[in-house]
Amino acid sequence: MFGMIEGTGFEVIDPSFNECLIGHARVERLWTGARWSEGPVWFAAGRYLLWSDIPNNRMLRFDETDGSVSRFRQPSNNSNGNTVDRESRLVTCEHLTRRVTRTEHDGSITVIADSFDGKRLNSPNDVVVKSDGSIWFTDPSYGILMDYEGDRAESEIGACHVYRVDPTGEISIVADDYVKPNGLAFSPDESELYIADTGATHTSGGPAHIRKHKVADDNSLSGGDVFADCTAGLFDGFRCDTGGRIWTSAADGVHCLAPDGMLIGKVLIPELVGNVCFGGPKLNRLFICGTTSLYSVFLNVNGVSPVGGV
Ligand code: MG
């Protein structure tokens, strides 16, 4: 399990990437057998990771204490992105049911959002929770374009937006100029919000980049210039470390972007990567969802804790 896996490794593009690496640490393949892995989320208290296998309509659980993988939820309504809120509750995007849900401490499920202005959402893709309890998610149409990752259907809204649900339950559009909004993450101090646009999947010459928005005290966004263009496929899901670097999925592995957007290095993975998250007790282990497999690598950086603190 810990031998060098073919096709894995590190590519240092800028010397500053060396500081992020542990000399002898290697990429590990923890499990394989999924069709399309997405939405990794770390549960610190339980020392386990959940992730989605979207076409197989299930969520899986990797137990850090013994390395075992089990089925967490099936059917999962073709779940995609996951995160935890400030109370460590699971928040999930579901394609099939076209909604965002929260799994409560007692296991019951609460619908956070399933429509806007009386129209059904497309297929929520990825989600993040801000420290004020607001829930921000993207709503591209991947889950309704075909039957593979949900049910094929027409978009009722007719566009792909980014939404925020306030703790009051009120939902609003925060960005309406994306082709296919996808992964999203706040900077460590939440003053900025990064959002990926994977519009190139269905629009020739379309966007394959991450944009950066300023977040005002009232949670409105401004700016939104392109932060980084993807040099290998698409940026799908990503996470920030405490140094403000972005660790993002790409076609050839995980790209590490400096706070100014410069690509400084890569963790090479032999499969298309869909999403990543930091885990382990010190949040210094990057979990990587690579198509059929779950990978991880220990790094000399720490992820931003989604539940606060570091
Ligand atoms: Mg995604």
Write the CATH homologous superfamily of the domain at 37-240.
TolB, C-terminal domain
Order of helices and strands: EEEEEEEEEEEEEEHEEEEEEEEEEEEE
Radius of gyration: 18 Å
Integer average pLDDT: 96
Secondary structure tally, helices: 1
User: What share of the residues does DSSP label as strand, in percent?
Assistant: over 45%
The kinds of small molecule bound in this structure are: magnesium ion
What does this structure look like?
It is built from one helix and 27 strands. The protein is globular and about 55 Å long. The model has no long low-confidence stretch (mean pLDDT 96). It has a domain of 204 residues: TolB, C-terminal domain (Neuraminidase), CATH 2.120.10.30. It has 310 residues and is mainly β. The chain binds magnesium ion. The site of magnesium ion has 9 residues, from strand 17.
Short précis:
Helix content is 1%, strand content 45%.
Give the SSE layout.
Blueprint: E1 9-12, E2 28-32, E3 37-43, E4 48-53, E5 58-63, E6 69-73, E7 79-84, E8 90-94, E9 99-103, E10 109-113, E11 115-116, E12 119-120, E13 127-129, E14 135-138, H1 142-145, E15 162-165, E16 171-175, E17 181-186, E18 192-197, E19 209-215, E20 221-229, E21 238-240, E22 246-250, E23 253-257, E24 263-268, E25 273-279, E26 285-290, E27 293-298
